[in-house]
Write a structure and sequence with these properties.
About 30% of the residues lie in helices and about 10% in strands. The chain has about 170 residues and is of the alpha+beta class.
Amino acid sequence: MARRPLPAHLPRERQVLPSPNACPCCGGKLTKLGEDITETLEVIPRQYKVIQTVREKFSCRSCETISQPPAPFHPIARGRAGPSLLAMVLYAKYGNHQPLNRQSEGFDREGLDLSVSTLADWVGASTATLAPLNELIRQHVMGGERLHGDDTTVPVLAKMKTVTGRL
């Protein structure tokens, strides 16, 4: 039974191995007959970067006024986390049910020192920032004539054991 091909929508990187210029037996000219392609599924690990926003200061020689462009917007005031990083932390916590201590350990393995308290602060600040959106969604859902719910269970860590939570 043949293997299914890898998904066609994934980008392909073509690496052509060097071929001999002449026949290894007699040194004669080689003519291409075709090629065999071996596909390998690979992953590029998460990549982090620091974005430095430079705001130059200028002073007026006449009135001695100092001018500078405003600071860039951050989802968390005076925060250092970008929106994509915050979305990743929130999705891991609420979408994948991954506790912050495990996320902190994972970041540590990747060379980032993000403590559990820092991640918890980010989650709390993000929750406050998203509160107006949450309220609009709540009003839309509760404004319906009927509300459907199912009994989705989720494992919840409790003291010395795991209990079953429901969404």
